[in-house]
């Protein structure tokens, strides 16, 4: 008789222990989803029944996907930018020194962190115009011909 009671008590304890983490996990998940939904100002226009339904659908989906409350609230750690010397700042941020070049860089659709690209393009265009002008000038000048 004692062994039967001990077996029943053990079974009940094991059964309760098996379901406690699941309900805690589900409760945490429901609370987190509700908290995240309530952060949205559009929920002020929704009825409590609509919010409950949305929380239920999202909770079921999250459980199927294996998403935890921690996954929903996790944010990447904020890393402070290292202190750079003036020379290092020039290397890392040329736009602070040459804002016009960066504006041209962005106008042509390049990344604004490397202003040498538009400067090189501008110098190449000027060189091409100068060479074309010299060739044109060379062909239209009168040359003295030597006649004997």
Structure commentary:
This protein is mainly α. It has two domains: 72 residues, no CATH class; 55 residues, no CATH class. The chain contains six helices and no strands. α1 packs across α2 and α5 packs across α6. The longest helix has 37 residues. The radius of gyration is 36 Å and the shape is elongated.
What's the total helix number?
6
Count of extended strands: 0
Distance between the termini: 141 Å
What's the Cα radius of gyration? 36 Å
Class per helix and strand makeup:
mainly alpha
Content of β-strand: under 5%
The residue-averaged pLDDT reads 76
Whole-number tally of structural domains: 2
Which sheet architecture does the biggest sheet show? none
Low-pLDDT runs of 5+ residues are none
Order of helices and strands: HHHHHH
Range of helix content: 55-70%
Multimer state: single chain
Shape: elongated
């Amino acid at each position: 008789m004692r062994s039967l009671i001990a077996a029943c008590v053990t079974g009940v304890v094991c059964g309760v222990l098996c379901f406690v983490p699941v309900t805690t996990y589900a409760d945490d998940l429901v609370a987190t989803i509700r908290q995240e939904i309530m952060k949205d100002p559009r929920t002020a226009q929704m009825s409590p029944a609509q919010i409950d339904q949305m929380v239920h659908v999202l909770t079921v989906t999250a459980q199927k996907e294996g998403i935890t409350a921690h996954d929903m609230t996790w944010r990447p750690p904020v890393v402070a930018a290292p202190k750079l010397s003036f020379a290092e700042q020039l290397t890392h941020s040329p736009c602070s020194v040459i804002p016009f070049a960066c504006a041209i860089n962005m106008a042509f659709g390049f990344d604004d962190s490397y202003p040498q690209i538009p400067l090189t393009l501008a110098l190449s265009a000027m060189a091409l115009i100068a060479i074309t002008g010299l060739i044109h000038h060379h062909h239209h000048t009168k040359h003295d011909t030597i006649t004997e």
